[in-house]
Amino acid sequence: MLDTILAGGLLHDGTGGDPVRTDIGIEGGRIAAIGDLSEADAETRVDLGGLAVAPGFIDLHTHSDFTLMADGRAQSQVHQGVTTEVIGQCGFSAAPARRPEDAKIMSPGFTEGMVDIDWSSFGEYLDHLDAMPLGVNVAAFVGHGSVHRAVLGDALRPADDEELDRMKALVDESIDGGAYGFSTGLEYWPGSLASPEQITELVSVAARREVLYATHVRNRDVHYDIGFGEAISCARAAGARLQISHIQPKHGAPDWAMEHSIEMVEGAKSHGVDIAYDVIPHDWSHTRVMAIMPQWAQEGGVAAVMARLKDKATREKIKANRRPMWRLVLDDGWHRIVLMQSARNPDLVGLTFAEIGARRGVDPYDAALDLLIEEGDEMAHLMWTSQSFSEDQIRLAIAQPDCAIISDTLALAPEGCLKHHIGSLSGYGWAARFLQHYVRDHGVLTLTEGVRRLTSLPAERLGLRDRGTIREGAWADITVFDAEQIESHCDVEAPRRFATGIAHVLVNGIFSMRDGERTAQDGGRVLRSH
């Protein structure tokens, strides 16, 4: 007697092989049989009527460290077939944290009062998360920025040798606690303080412990080649496996930057460096508004930043920053920058900063800095988005066999405590948009290959041996969808609309979605590397 039989679906098993119409039997949360099960008995039998059947989608790069603690259902992800998330990216992770304030600052989307921070170590954080109902499986990376804060606090300087040793020990301890990898965000503070030599020493811990190193590189516009070159160099010197996060170059890079970046990767791979990369399936880029400020202006916590923004002379010095994170700012491209999240000014969300400045009668740059002040203690979570990526360069990356697809967003819900949160314009529809726009509508990849990019490829990079493919003995993380109807409905005006076309989602054999509707069941669990 099987628990569940999924009958008559067109199986794309995640390996890239040809699809086959077959039945799948599930028992005890795992796939027990694949083949003709018409004579088998099961407690539940679901006729799939020829719908596409795939391994559950794996989101290799998210920032749901806090939002999953506030609401573990992961509604925005489950509704588009995601069964596993990888949090702790770009150097930001909720642990280790020497004090609750550090966990708050390093958890994108954190909102006061939603989560009781009762952890300090990475293992304790995972224990807290593991005690919650989860709609998806969760694997977590430990972030360089969090490790830096745990040792140096807000100090505006690189670590000295003794402090670097303490940071390395924390990375080791976090891997002992279950971290699946180590991440850096070198375009952000405090990652921007670290030298390549220091990053290499920290990455060497990940290499020794055989976990993945993922990096948001130091630059993706004018000096994109230095940014990607540094990532390759650190991984090579440390002997680490490298995942270049959201590899697409930004506004300010030459038109051939993606082609050149791929050439750099392929050249290193030809000499034995283990490298892969991923892209966001959208031409919108998102980040914290604070990221536009120079490093010195972000030191000292909210009160210090607030004082600098309110001082006229200091504000002008901030605006004179010659190396803002977005070159669009230098090029006066405020009509391509949109406010995405604000607790204090929700009525402005969805407007460009050219429109916000005009509405307030101020320069758009001043409008952005004013909004930071008005956000108060939550200024670190003021978010904006810009059209910084090239569609042609995204397609070029997707065409490469080692390119995974990611959301770079948060697990959210349009109701409950997270109803006002947003992580990106594609957060509710990134996987659906990839299958709709790049696979079905434009044929950049076949459906079978598209499924591989969302399943076995990220599983292999992460080191998940029993997820990412549909085979006997693997965990029953399964997504069933209509390949002709799957669709994202997110846009600037309405970014919180669920994707459609997903029929069923099973996480560890439990139906999270059934017949296109979210169930009350949450089958996810925390995955630990050791």
Give an overview of the whole structure:
By secondary structure, the protein is an alpha/beta fold. The chain has helices at 67-70, 75-78, 100-105, 122-130, 144-152, 161-176, 196-208, 224-238, 257-269, 301-310, 312-319, 327-330, 353-360, 364-375, 391-398, 430-441, 447-454, 456-462, and strands at residues 2-11, 20-27, 30-35, 42-47, 52-55, 57-59, 82-87, 137-143, 181-185, 212-216, 242-244, 275-279, 285-288, 337-341, 383-386, 403-405, 478-481, 502-507, 510-514, 517-518. Strand 18 (502-507) and strand 19 form a beta hairpin. Helix 5 packs across helix 6 (161-176), helix 6 (161-176) runs parallel beside helix 7 (196-208) and helix 16 runs antiparallel to helix 17. The mean pLDDT is 95.
Short description:
The chain has 530 residues and is an alpha/beta fold. The protein is built from 18 helices and 20 strands.
Give the helices and strands, then pairings.
Elements: E1 2-11, E2 20-27, E3 30-35, E4 42-47, E5 52-55, E6 57-59, H1 67-70, H2 75-78, E7 82-87, H3 100-105, H4 122-130, E8 137-143, H5 144-152, H6 161-176, E9 181-185, H7 196-208, E10 212-216, H8 224-238, E11 242-244, H9 257-269, E12 275-279, E13 285-288, H10 301-310, H11 312-319, H12 327-330, E14 337-341, H13 353-360, H14 364-375, E15 383-386, H15 391-398, E16 403-405, H16 430-441, H17 447-454, H18 456-462, E17 478-481, E18 502-507, E19 510-514, E20 517-518
Parallel strand pairs: 1-4, 1-5, 6-7, 7-8, 8-9, 9-10, 10-11, 11-12, 12-16
Antiparallel strand pairs: 1-2, 2-3, 5-17, 13-15, 14-15, 17-18, 18-19, 19-20
